[in-house]
Amino acid sequence: MDKGTNGGRGNVLPRRSFAQELRAVRGRTSQVTIAQRIGYSASHYSNVENGHKPPTLDFAQACDIAFDTGNRFVELFRSESRAADREGPARPAQLPPTPQVIGRDDAFVALERLLQREPNATSANVIALDGLAGVGKTTLAVAWAHRIRHRYRDGVLFVDLHGHAAEGEPIGPHEVLEHLLTTLGVPAAEIPTTLDWRSALLRTVLDGTNTLLLVDDAVRFDQVRPLIPASPGCLVIVTSRSRLSGLATHYGARCMTVDMLDGPGSVALLRDVVGPERVDAERLATERIASLCGGLPLALRVAAERVAASRHLTLKGLADDLSEAGRRLDVLSPPAGEGAVRTVLSWSYRALGQSERRLFRLLSLHPGREFGVEAAAVIADAGRAEVQRAIDVLVGVHLLQESGVRRYRFHDLVRDYAAELLAAEEPAAEADEVERRLLYWYLHTAAAGNRTMSPKRPQVRMDGWTTSPPPQPHKFASAEQALEWFETELANLAAAVQQALVSEVHEVAFALPVVLGDYLYWRHPWGMWLGPLQACLAEARRLDNRTAQAWILTNLGNAFLDQRRLDDAETSFQEAASLHDGPAGQVWSEVGIGRVLQEQGRHEAASAHYRQARRLCADPGSWSWAVVTCYIADAERAVGQYKAAFGLLTEAITILRAHGDPISTGCAMDKMSEVYHDLGDHTASLDLLHQAIDTSASAADRWGRAQYLRKLGHRYFEAGDREQAHRAWTEALEQFESLGDPRAAQVRADLDAMTLPVPFPRRAG
Fold first, then answer.
1. What is the pTM of this model?
2. Fewer Cβ within 10 Å of end Cβ, the chain: N or C?
3. Are strands 401-404 and 235-240 parallel, antiparallel or unpaired?
4. 140 — phi, psi (to 5°)?
5. Helix 31-38 / helix 42-49 crossing angle, nearest 10 deg
6. pLDDT category, 118, cuts 50, 70, 90?
């Protein structure tokens, strides 16, 4: 008799259900044994066999393998699933619609990578997205959930916790669980009253399912914790402005920060909203808008909508509006409010404690783009540990961004917002005092760094420049540490000069370039510092401060000389010489004039100025006397007086070593190597260059090391040793590029020209 008929009459026998077939096949084997065999818990197996819980495809496949029943259980599962789809409640599909996502291809790839799991995972997969308000966390999460929802046959749940709603409190897990359980078909009368029981029931209902749960706008870990299912077939996506580290700690969540859009992504978003014709017609203005919005998608959309909604507002006009001081947030905050950049930032600000709010406001006073914990502690007038805790809170909610090890920065729009709050909530006198305290801290720390870096050099007396009592400066344990601080804070020091000028803290504005004179001379950061120095000079002239003018002109002379602006350099040095009221400044003006003359090939005239400078040095054994002697020696070498040059440099090196100044000693060795090179002693010249390189390394003199390596490459190239030349130039290029020095392009050209069949002509200096 056919198994599918009854008595041969052609009537189809009732087909067993999945649960009935499971009981029939199991026979007398215990449920525990079968559960272990198929890899599920005994309770879950019992629920399926007794019809209390529907099977899943994975469960059906496991049964077919365990019982060797072909595809019988899979077919039953599919048959019952189709019937359930026809007769039962629709599976949840709660994802909201999402706008087109632009510029996030890399983010989608990263999310797919996070989705990959160990094959033996025993709990739900949890992925948490965090980022600044307006960066597009929800948009990204919803768009990605739409892409992958087909993988979750039991449906997609969505809940907005309203963590940063304009009004009211965030929704608690107790209320959310009731909504989720009701959606999943649990009768209201059967939903427990306590949070823990509701959470347990959700885990029970979702056990063995393939369900996606998107939890949007969470504030705290304890909002989300009760919503996490246990089933390994489930995925939970959480978005928050804070990094919910508790999810990683307790549930193995993979956390991902959603970054700003890059330049091309920002332009693409503007193009999508405004239209390709208008963007293509005003490409430069579009790129300005993208930059002024800082890659923040919310700001970009608001800006784009302003243009798209107006037939008269051009992209250039919008860019000009955004560029106007103090107007950027107004432009990006339309009257409607909910989509305003200022509004969404305010939600994050209101969630802070009082101390974090005040620090957030005060940090907008920092002159540079990034700052360290120590500067923040000066601003807050508090201990470093206390300030670090507050900074961690601000970083956690993305009102600050980490830029390095204990280094932080604002997003430009967030800084604008912090400055607005400072003006509105902080007394002007207190803000001025904080600003002055920070500026004087930078000045006195720079002076301390200079003393540590070059303890035997003549030091600037702070009491000659400032009248305010100094704040406690940073203490440096070594010259290397001081140089590292200068490198890290170089841009901030330039910004501090500019801010001191604006705030009329003239003591700091004029003293900082003097304190940094030696460092600026050998570091050559003129692309960053030329503007501040020229602004300082203009203000010093307005105030008729002759001393400040003289020292600033000396720095400007060095800058112009490095840029081959020889006429400007000579004018600056000569004016400085006429303004200096003592020999200490006149020495370096005379040296500067001599250096300009040497660049012009007028070596004898240069030597006269160098010798005049040395006569101004009171002590023949002083550091200044030795440095000036090196310049005299170089001028003697240039006119073929090698014996005199050799003697002068030997004497200078002895003095500089006694003063413990490796930077100047390395420079003297470099000049000595030139003497040997001119005399044709290739071995001695190379040896001295290697000594200069070693000396610069011991002083952490990266710029000097790069210069010597570049010259070493030329020496080897002239000698036909291309391998050594290539090695030296490659290292020099790395050093110059790490310093952001324009000489990197020249070294790269040296490397590119190594294919030439003839060596370069020798380069002096």
1. 0.77
2. N
3. unpaired
4. -65, -45
5. 110
6. low
